[in-house]
UniProtKB/TrEMBL annotation:
The family this protein is said to belong to: Belongs to the glycosyl hydrolase 45 (cellulase K) family.
Catalytic activity: Endohydrolysis of (1->4)-beta-D-glucosidic linkages in cellulose, lichenin and cereal beta-D-glucans
GO MF annotation: an example: cellulase activity
Pfam families: Glyco_hydro_45
Keyword Endoplasmic reticulum belongs to the record: no
Name used for this protein in its record: cellulase
Top-level division of the source organism's lineage: Eukaryota
Key words of the record: Carbohydrate metabolism, Cellulose degradation, Glycosidase, Hydrolase, Polysaccharide degradation
Organism: uncultured fungus
Presence of keyword RNA-binding: no
Length: 123
């Protein structure tokens, strides 16, 4: 998915981490103030950054980011956490991807990973 909105894990206090997920301004430059309003709300200026594109690392393992919703876990447990996924069907069957949760995906069903793909369409 790619909706350009500020990831939910960008707000202070969402995760037991050193810092929240960074956001960008309209020119894709990092904002260092995690209290800036979400650009998907009226008057907001904080966007998702395009540097969240997935990439392939050594040993043919892919890396990226995702919106994550796990049964029985809230933002505190999922925000900024990393997960190893294994694809089971299609041309990527048997391949692995490590993702970091940067969004909670409130519109997702339980146990769902929605991979971040900048440029893959808005919404």
């Amino acid at each position: 998915y790619w909706d350009c909105c500020k990831p939910s894990c960008s707000w202070a206090g969402k995760a037991p981490a050193f810092d929240a997920v960074h956001t960008c301004d309209r020119n894709d430059q990092w904002d260092w103030n995690n209290s800036i309003k979400n650009a998907c709300e009226d008057g907001g200026e904080a966007y998702a950054c395009t540097n969240t594109s997935p990439w392939v690392g050594p040993d043919d393992v892919s890396y990226g980011f995702a919106a994550v919703k796990l049964a029985g876990q809230g933002e505190w447990q999922t925000c900024c956490s990393c997960y190893e996924l294994q694809f089971t069907t299609g041309p990527v069957a048997g391949k692995k991807m490590v993702v970091q949760a940067i969004n909670t995906g409130s519109d997702l069903s339980d146990n769902h990973f929605d991979l971040v793909m900048p440029g893959g369409g808005v919404g």
